[in-house]
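Hi everyone, sorry if this is the wrong subforum. Our group has a chain we'd like a structural model of before ordering constructs, and none of us has done structure prediction before. Sequence below.
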Amino acid sequence: MKKYFLLIPCLAFLIVFFIIPIVGMFVDSVYQPEKGWVAQKYLDFFRQRLSRTVYFRSLWMSLLVTLVALLIGYPTAMAVVRVKNDSLRSLLMTLLVFPLMTNPVARTFSWLAVLGREGLINNLLLSLRVLDSPVRLLYTRGAVFIGLLQLFLPLMIISLTSALENLPKDVPLAARSLGANSFKLFTKIYLPLTSEGIVTGSTLVFTGCITAYVTPAVLGGSRVLMLSTLLYQKASVTLDWTMATVIAMIMFLSTLGVNFISRAFSTIGVRRWRRASG
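Answer:
Right subforum, don't worry. Here is the predicted structure as tokens:
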């Protein structure tokens, strides 16, 4: 039992600075002194067409960024893990982590010089005579998507790299010796055994996307409202703190839902692998 005493500082910190504030926010969003326990504000949120549009746009954008990050991050992580030279692998990991050392605000504003009407892409297309006049790349869903993907892709790659490094080296070799081709090796060995890394990376990317404020605000503006920018408007412009609390809880509950679903699929995959292997 003594070893569990080491968990007390961490648990105390989480309870005081995370669980209690979350519970307080949830109570504020469903309790009204004059009416008691109600969920009227949640119903009001989804009854508004703008709120529904913003929510499903944010959910779809976050899921799409997470999926694309997984599709790009998995082969990248596999390539990094297969590098035999330790110095080269350390250099690659440093390059992957380096974007996380840069302030997200600076990283987001740098896209203005690339996607603006006088930016790099428009100037390049105009010089190549592909376009006759500059096109609007900023304040679009594509701009927000690119900004979010560039912002959170390193988190996915780092999570997958860690999972692949912990994969037993003899398992893929044993599968190869038993006649497994590359497709079966990937679907029957790599995916089930690295499911925890996939879940962790997906949760980090999805959470970052659905709660990000600077990137949607700068690259999307008022044309591409996201939950975070709508939350800012409710809290700072209209001073509707109750609705702002509801939006914050919807973001939190959506993240929990995605994490629960991804873990459920991960558990099913691992169980199938265990039944097939033994």
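For your construct planning: DSSP finds 14 helices and two strands in the chain. The two ends are 34 Å apart (CA to CA).
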